[in-house]
Amino acid sequence: MSQKEDNSEKALILGIQNGDNESLKKVYKANFPSIMHFILSNNGSEQEAKDIYQDAMIVFYEKLQDKDFRLNCQIKTFLYSISRRLWLKRLAEKNKYVSQIDDFEAFLPLDRFEISLEEHDHKFEIMRQALEKLGDPCKTVLKDFYIEKKSMQEIAQEMGYTNPENAKNQKYKCLQRLKKLFFQHYKETNS
Q1: Is 103 in contact with 152 (CB distance < 8 Å)?
Q2: Which of 75, 89, 90 has the alpha carbon at shortest distance from 31?
Q3: Taking a C-beta distance cutoff of 8 angstroms, is the pair 116, 73 a contact?
Q4: CA 124 distance to own-chain centroid
């Protein structure tokens, strides 16, 4: 972030803390498109994106009213992270995304406020490359479960596993392999 952007963000934060509605509107308008894109790309509607973003803005506003709070990242990173967490929680409540949260959140540190959106995108590109190298049957099992939203029963039948538990064990092993490939690629690209 340039010095000019840093000063602009500080001015916006100060404005919000002092009750300036124009500063709040600027932050709202500047950051909503990325949240909308994220939610629409993850089983959400435009109305759900608006609801989640409104909740994230409330969290942001309330945090800024706390004298001890220090924002250690860009505003867009903070709002994206809060919105992402709120959306994943809502999806979990709807039972659409529970397993994906459990499996991927464990090793992809995407929700820390310190990570910039560029770093976030970089990690997803590394994940895409790791998936390409994973090969079958793992790539198919993970795609069927996470993208196609198939049950373990369906995957077991399609892949020829004797029961859903075996399919679940295979998915776990595939995730471990993917994790290893991800960290190898990450290490290579960041050394």
Answers
A1: no
A2: 75
A3: yes
A4: 10
